[in-house]
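Exercise 7b. Backbone tokens:
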């Protein structure tokens, strides 16, 4: 927050106080290293900022981290860019290396939330090896379990007014006139990812790929299966119970 050219007395006292209070609160929190696993639309994106703030963790979204490493031209980022330019997948070792680097940031001192990784058992083993070298391990894997049919209703019911970004849901938040934006009366559109056919193929791929990862961590006894179809507040309560 404070740059070198800025004196502490120039920072508004409210900001200093809230930062101090945050640090005091964080100091008493136990360290946690978490993995979030769940299909698209299962609510991971809604819960992760809540978990991050509650336990003072850093959020490591591997896609964003890769892009950041490439943009910052770190040694690993340069390697990743070479692979991407050739149209190849970035190797597991490289991704684990980028996670390793990110974990050293001060914001990750209390631990992290990993999202989007590991997607395969091989990646999970590499991650465990890397953490093992640092003398730490994954504490909990939060499995955002939700029935495909519920997800389909959640996702295929979403409609958007492209100009404003206003979103509607045919069942949970319908527009006043079906298919039209409440404010402008213009037609609503569906994102191409939100159709049943696209969703089905994404879910099939997700189950095939991640079930073995969930099984791998289940054997270690660290998977907590959440009822992700419940309302957001209840899922948050469930997460807090699991992590307390």
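Sequence design result:
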């Amino acid at each position: 927050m404070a740059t070198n050219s800025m004196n502490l007395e120039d920072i508004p006292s409210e900001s200093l106080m809230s930062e101090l209070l945050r640090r005091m609160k964080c100091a008493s929190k136990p360290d946690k290293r978490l993995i979030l696993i769940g299909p698209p639309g299962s609510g991971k994106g809604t819960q992760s900022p809540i978990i991050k703030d509650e336990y003072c963790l850093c959020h490591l979204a591997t896609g964003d981290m890769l892009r950041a490493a490439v943009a910052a031209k770190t040694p690993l980022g340069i390697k990743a860019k070479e692979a991407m330019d050739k149209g190849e997948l970035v190797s597991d070792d490289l991704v684990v290396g980028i996670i390793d680097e990110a974990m050293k940031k001060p914001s990750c001192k209390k631990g992290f939330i990993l999202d989007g990784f590991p997607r395969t058992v091989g990646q999970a083993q590499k991650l465990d090896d890397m953490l093992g070298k640092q003398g730490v391990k994954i504490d909990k894997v939060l499995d955002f379990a939700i029935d495909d049919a519920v997800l389909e209703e959640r996702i295929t019911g979403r409609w958007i007014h492209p100009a404003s970004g206003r979103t509607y849901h045919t069942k949970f938040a319908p527009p006043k006139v079906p298919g039209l934006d409440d404010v402008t009366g213009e037609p609503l559109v569906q994102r191409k990812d939100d159709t049943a056919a696209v969703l089905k193929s994404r879910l099939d791929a997700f189950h095939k790929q991640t079930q073995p990862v969930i099984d791998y961590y289940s054997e270690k006894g660290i998977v907590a299966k959440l009822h992700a179809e419940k309302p957001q507040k209840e899922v948050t309560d469930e997460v807090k119970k699991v992590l307390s």
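Instructor comment: The two ends are 30 Å apart (CA to CA). The mean pLDDT is 91.
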